[in-house]
Amino acid sequence: MGRPPTTVLLPTTTWTTACQEVADQLGPDDELLVVCDDESDRVADRDGLPAGVEVVVAGVPDGCSGKANAIDVGMERARHDRIVWTDDDFHHPDDWLATLNADYETHGPVSEVPFFVGQDPLSILLEPGYAFGGTFSVWAGDVIWGGAVIFERSDLDVDAFRKELRQTISDDGLLGEYIDVTTLRRARRVEMGGSVRETLERHVRFMKLVRYHDPPAAVVNIVLLLVLTAFSIRFPLGTGAVLTAMHGAIYLAFGQRRWTALLAYPSVLAMVPLMAYAYARRTFVWGGRRYRWHSKFDVEIVD
């Protein structure tokens, strides 16, 4: 017996390599909805789309992020009950969609994890911190990553979810409040940054996501980071050795062999001022729009 047909939602404004990779994996009854913002986006008038692929124009967001708006419209247009969310900024191997579907049959809703790879001096410095907070902690806590998650409509209250989605920033942060997933120890490399400014904007968004979707975790993170920083300053050699060994083990556990694990100690020292900066900032830029995130369901698009 074959698997159920699947709808893949991929928000993007351009036809990227990832779009083609996912399109090549579609079964005869699957569909890929490439969701863009506006008719002026380059992907909107692309000719010669592969079979099973449709471009959906979501329109300008109002009171939510562009990503949340795209996912909401995609959920409305999806023909199938089984749904996959993904992003356009990482490699999707040939068996990616088939493997996710097989994982669902075994575990129910599942998510993969990102491994963020720096593209500028600041993001390279922060790689070890993101390996811990954005990869290891996401896996250990069964947290959803919107870049690779599969579920079915029956796994959540779709109407209630979509109503709240249209009022917030984080699509996967909100989804995690509606369904429980098994997060797999399978990492996808995601390039981050490109400039120091881009890295700072991403960091602000990540910090605010935790603040609004999991306030207790935000408090725990602050306390632990302050304690760890104090130890790092008081006992630099011992703490540096432990941090380097721990992050090296995390890298290897997720199949990553990168020299940046050696930056674990300075990465930790950089996190306190960066966390203070993130909480002090009133706005951040994501996908070309500037947002002011007043509270979880109070989002202002500044420009």
UniProtKB/TrEMBL annotation:
> What's a BP term from Gene Ontology annotated to this protein?
glucosylceramide biosynthetic process
For this UniProt entry, the molecular function terms from Gene Ontology, in alphabetical order, are: ceramide glucosyltransferase activity
Q: Where in the cell is it found?
A: Membrane
Q: Which SUPFAM superfamilies match?
A: Nucleotide-diphospho-sugar transferases
Give the keywords, sorted.
Glycosyltransferase, Membrane, Transferase, Transmembrane, Transmembrane helix
InterPro entries in alphabetical order: Ceramide_glucosylTrfase, Nucleotide-diphossugar_trans
State the annotated membrane topology for this chain.
Multi-pass membrane protein
The reply on keyword Ribonucleoprotein is no
Broad class of where this protein is predominantly found: membrane
Q: Which Gene3D superfamilies match?
A: Spore Coat Polysaccharide Biosynthesis Protein SpsA, Chain A
TM spans (from-to): 212-231, 261-280
The pathway is: Sphingolipid metabolism; Lipid metabolism; sphingolipid metabolism
What Gene Ontology terms describe where this protein resides (cellular component)?
Answer: membrane
Query: What's the protein called, per UniProt?
Result: Glycosyl transferase
